[in-house]
Design brief:
8 helices; 81% helix
Length: 179
């Protein structure tokens, strides 16, 4: 059975992660050799992953280079601040630092935006979780194999949430490098 381009859209992420059986992996590779459109998509995904890794490494270098203890305290407590998990004194310190530091204001704003987008994405994914498209595609391609992933629906939602976080983080990092 040949793989269609629509099926490839689903399978590419599994292929990149190495989560396909040998037979299905071979079919994907054959399709990539024959289909320039899917090969281009695959190259884009590969490039995005490489750029994301590079961006993360660059951001870590910038973070390491910034030796200001106030900045380190800000970065270490940013998530707790947003989630209202800090004491009143710690929150005031974060607020004061944010007011006086343009980079901190930008990071706080970006973090709030990412949180909002993640919540929206999580709600949307939760509504769409009734139908597992990827599992259906895999069953169509190889009906003899059991693709019951045995993950609780909450874990699937959490995985979608994490992927959204990674994608949005990459976008933020990318936008910061451009700006």
């Amino acid at each position: 059975m040949k793989i269609t381009c629509t099926q490839m859209d689903v399978l590419l992420s599994f292929y990149v992660e190495g989560d396909l059986s040998k037979a299905l992996k071979q079919k994907v590779e054959e399709h990539l050799q024959q289909c320039s459109v899917c090969r281009e998509k695959y190259e884009i995904i590969k490039t995005m992953i490489q750029e994301l890794k590079t961006s993360v490494a660059e951001k870590e270098e910038i973070y390491s280079a910034n030796t200001g203890s106030q900045y380190r305290v800000f970065r270490n407590n940013l998530s707790a601040y947003i989630d209202n998990e800090l004491s009143a004194d710690e929150s005031i310190k974060i607020k004061k630092y944010t007011i006086n530091n343009k980079q901190a204001r930008k990071e706080l704003e970006d973090t709030y935006n990412i949180r909002r987008l993640m919540n929206e994405s999580f709600k949307k994914t939760k509504l769409e979780a009734k139908q597992d498209f990827a599992r259906n595609v895999l069953r169509q391609l190889n009906p003899n194999e059991d693709y019951s992933f045995r993950f609780h629906p909450i874990l699937k939602l959490a995985a979608a949430f994490v992927m959204t976080v990674l994608l949005l983080s990459a976008l933020v990092v990318f936008s910061l490098t451009l700006g």
